[in-house]
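Researcher: Last one for today. Full complex below.
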Amino acid sequence: MPKFVEVLLDLPIDRSFTYQIPDGMEEKARIGHRVVVPFARREMTGYVVETLDEVEATYTIKEIKRVIDDTPLYNTQTIALAEWMSRFYLCSRGEALSMMIPGGRRDSSIPALESEEDLLFGRVERLSDEQQHAIDTILKREKPMYYLYGITGSGKSEVFLRAAEAIIREGKTVIYLVPEITLTHQLARQVTNRFSQRVAILHSALTPSQRLKEWKRIIAGEVDLAIGARSAVFAPFPNLGLIILDEEHENSYKSGNTPRYHARQVAQRRCQSEGATLVMGSATPSLEAWALMQENKEVGSLHLRNRVSGGTMPVIEVVNLSYEKNLISKTLQERIKETLNKKKQAILFLNRRGFSYFFHCNSCGYELRCPHCAVALTYHKGTEQMVCHYCGYRTKPMRVCPECNSLDVNYSGFGTEMVEEEVRRLFPSARIARLDTDSAKKKGQVGKVIKAFRDGEIDILLGTQMVAKGLNFPLVELVGIVLADSGLNIPDFRAQERTFSLLVQVSGRAGRYNDQGRVIIQTYHPENPAIQYALRSDVQGFYSQELEIRKQTGFPPYSRLINLVFRGRNQQKVEQEVQKFSAHIEQLTVNGGAEVLCSSECPLEKIASNWRYHLLVSGVQASLAHHLVAKALSDYTPARGVYLEVDLDPLQLI
DNA sequence: AGCACGCCGACT
DNA sequence: GTCGGCGTGCTC
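Model: Here's the assembly. Have a good evening.
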């Protein structure tokens, strides 16, 4: 009977601590149980990862205070995954494990959108040849991963579900990952019906105790399929057969706090070590996934070309805003009028992101770009400089727009409020509602607006990113993208990819229930590749030229980026610390292959009275960048009051 | 991450 | 003389 245990704690130190098991507690203090332990004059929740019969110690070993769980919450496989995560994402094992276990640190995701989904679950339809071929290929499992690539409405969900059913019939289990926003009550109900209750729903709105209950059902073998967002990738199935990753391109698969894991990477790892198959799907794959598909080694590419339920693609028009007086162009005004006359609805989409922290021309939207990285420069008010956050290039902001000679250049921009005002002025009798992050803060507000819109009580819905996802409303005939450029100008090498993806996703949805679907893209740069390829629905064309650009500029997938963010109350101290670390890592950068690209203030240099500086490391070979940072971090602890966060494969540098 | 210990400045 | 700044080290 073991008398000692090794315990991991949710601390940024990567060590375990030894505790003694009090008499009579031996049965319950096993691997997989959470325990309460005394630790440096306080109590903490710990995770038992090992049991020991005897230990040699030069210190006095303390006793476990109490055991939390009656039955194990995790197994050696889970612990191994946490170990991998700590190595891969450069965090401690305790941080990784406590992030995986419910009741641990909360997963701070956005509250779920109460919209309904249109995945045609439950309805048994005849499969198309393409779908049948995809299912057959997946079930052969000749490759460890498959990518189901096809437009919205091509029946990806049905392929996923049939594959899941087949795997479950083999006695194995399935994890079905969806972006947070698509996991709705209706979707949950449909999946539950289809798999006759043997389903666990891991929703972010669940309380820790509800989440724990679902975990225990999974462990107890009462469940064949778990559906959920990002963190559902940790669902503790002992006999995992399949992981489905729907809408693979979605950024919400990447965690926003330490460890900043990506559900796709974790899923890959789990499938690899547990002998399961990974099936991903999207109409607009991430460039990383696309590159893997082209290689055709580990990822098998399955293309769904046709829409299952018919429905034509919408007519897409591009309007050049340069020749327009108003923010809402004559063409868009005309289309809105037509739509309203037909008693149909319109959605106006505005990508507001980024306008506040970069400098641009208010007349034509012109933006200063980095000559080395081809990304927009970020305006720093304090130093009156334009800075590239990938290579550190600096220059003075412009006084006159070089494109249109306008003097109206500054760092302010227009937001949803401004557009709303204009729309109200143009259509005084229309019923208009706004849906964005500000209005989403009020609880229940989002659901109310969406319901009203669905019930036809609103004519024009105005919104940001939020409306782009769940916008399947039968009465919508018109989608207007008020300013496609606002996404193109953000200082990010993925700006083109995101814009293209968004345009394709939005267009794909507009024609879903309706043969009259129309999409109007307003832009100052109609010649932009993202817009042009989206207009022609040329997905492959966009990816090949974008991959070429990434190759030339040395960005992912042709390199690995690691962003190290230092933050703290005291600006001087944080700055000093970055410089100190920069010198330290520079010294290790000897045989090349990986280098420090840039170390400077963050694009948003102060958040919640915390000063932020970052250091960006890049490696042509992923492992070289990883090794360099791991080595630099191995014998380093930041000064007091300075906190370091590691972001491996960052999606944005804010 | 916390929390105590310890060594230097300005205060009832 | 003490209160309190934050630099350093440790936690089984």
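Chain A has 19 helices and 28 strands. Chain A has a mean pLDDT of 88.
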